[in-house]
Amino acid sequence: MVIKAHVKHNTYFDSITLMKIARSLAGMQGIEDAAAIMATPPNLQLLAEAGLMPLENTAGPTDVLFVVRASDEDSAEIALQAAEEQLSQRPAYVADTAMGGQPQPRSIEEAKRFLPDARIAVISVPGPYAALEAQQALRAGLHVFLFSDNVALEDEIALKQMAQERGLLLMGPDCGTALLNGAALGFVNVVPSGSIGIVGASGTGIQQVMSLVAQGGGGISQAIGCGGRDLSEAVGAITTLQGLRLLQEDEQTKVMVLISKPPAPAIAERVLQAAATGNKPVVVIFVGADHDALHHRYGNHLTITRTLAEAAQQALLLSGIKMQPSQLVPTTRGHTSSRGSLSALFSGGTLCDEAMHIWAEQLGPIYSNIPLNPAWRLPEHGHVQGMQGHSAIDFGSDEYTRGRPHPMIDPSLRLKRLQEAANNPDVSVILLDIVLGYCSHPNPASVYAPAILAAREQAASTGRSLTVVISLCGTEGDPQKLSLQAAQLRAAGAEVFTSNADAAQFCSRAL
Predict the structure, then answer these.
(1) What Cα–Cα distance (Å) separates residue 260 from each residue in 82, 160, 229, 263?
(2) Percent of the chain at pLDDT exceeding 70
(3) DSSP class per residue in 458-507
(4) Core-most of 65, 157, 182, 209, by most CB within 10 Å?
């Protein structure tokens, strides 16, 4: 076995391109494993954990690093040459005819000249460069969907103030989801058009609500993502307040849903007062907030809910739709209770947060990279080997997405952690969230179902019972099709729930 590497200094390629190259190398003859990364410190750490760190490494954060573990020198050399060839074959022209066959624009200003009627810019570049691109888009009179993460807080504040002054929306940074006048941006589920509008500082929170609304027979008018820090005291809910005003003015929207983790108290007061003084009913889900206190203060004007599923249900009721029962009724297999521990591997931060609040009440401390209590913080990179207790990791958090695709796109890291959890004799319940829709993995069940089956068989071979639970977020209209995904996952022995809260409650009962 040999490990060989090649470095391209002062070169940048997006994480999706690098992921595709790594997959193609891993499938070549004589190659046991492969990686193609931007050589940032977190990525190098993950490389070392995978046993792929070369003995000599001269790569830094601005360099591309290719590494292969091969059966022999010749196979390694052939694979590294293939990586170089794949990079050199990147197309120089746009694939469609929107630009008239012209070369790709090199700036926002150039793109605006090609498309003078454009109203919005979608920006997904590395965090350190994102603010400048967003500033150029705002100056060009464009709303901004800022998908990039790892953007400095002071840049976010300046950009949102600039957007507000110009009457524009700055959605993000780290904004994963929006649905504007029927146009889907980022990670979005395929849902019917309807009367329920959403403003959310959570991508997967929006997706959970919009999917459950669709499953219940309703539809979505608009979904405005704000970015996870928008309701912090520093940012001041600039985009959230803009979004609420826009939905109040939107003729199609009859009911509004406001989604966030608990805001700073002063910001919560400002946002809820704005929501309560409008002329449309508003459903509020602040995941993990003091439900009773909010209900006591605002219950006469707003509908306060405890879970994302309850928010979807109440929005349907307020829009005059009695929620239809899901066709995906969970089929439990009579698992016996266990005294083991829980390992939850999430791709959605809000889904992780919602589940941890449920578990903390029923199971006690939940160790995490986004802990509810500072004392419950996991070690760096979320390693739980040797630790006792329940854990929940958000693999969509910034430290896991620097220089690599989001886990909803690339399942490789979660699959490795699934195997680790399955081999841990203390773990008796594993939960995975799987989020369908545009931009997500085209067929997640095709990779997760075999891994789940293997994990359960491995546990059974050692006399252990392992329960695998899936929180499945999606719709029948999604490219992956909800029912098909559920059937494959259940065939592998998983318990499947379309409500994240229901999945979390089932884990508590199983333990």
Answers:
(1) 45, 18, 10, 7
(2) 92
(3) HHHHTT---EEEEEEE--TTSTT-HHHHHHHHHHTT-EEESSHHHHHHHH
(4) 209
What are residue 224's phi and psi, to 5 degrees? -110, 110
pLDDT for the residue 259? 97
Whether 94 has a pLDDT exceeding 50, the answer reads no
Nearest 5°: the CA angle 418, 424, 425 is 140
pLDDT digits (tens, 9 = 90+) for 356-409: 999 999 999 999 999 999 999 998 655 555 457 999 999 988 788 776 788 999
170-171: strand order across its sheet: 120-123, 143-146, 170-171
Contact 6, 83 (CB under 8 A): yes
Q: Is the dihedral of CA 373, 376, 380, 382 positive or negative?
A: negative
Whole-number Å distance between alpha carbons of 91 and 111: 17
pLDDT of residue 334: 52
The dihedral region occupied by 174, where left means phi > 0, alpha psi between -120 and 50, and beta the remainder, is left
**For residue 180, what are the β-bridge partners?**
183
Give 128-165 as a DSSP string. HHHHHHHHHHHHTT-EEEE---S--HHHHHHHHHHHHH
Q: What is the residue type of 495? A: E
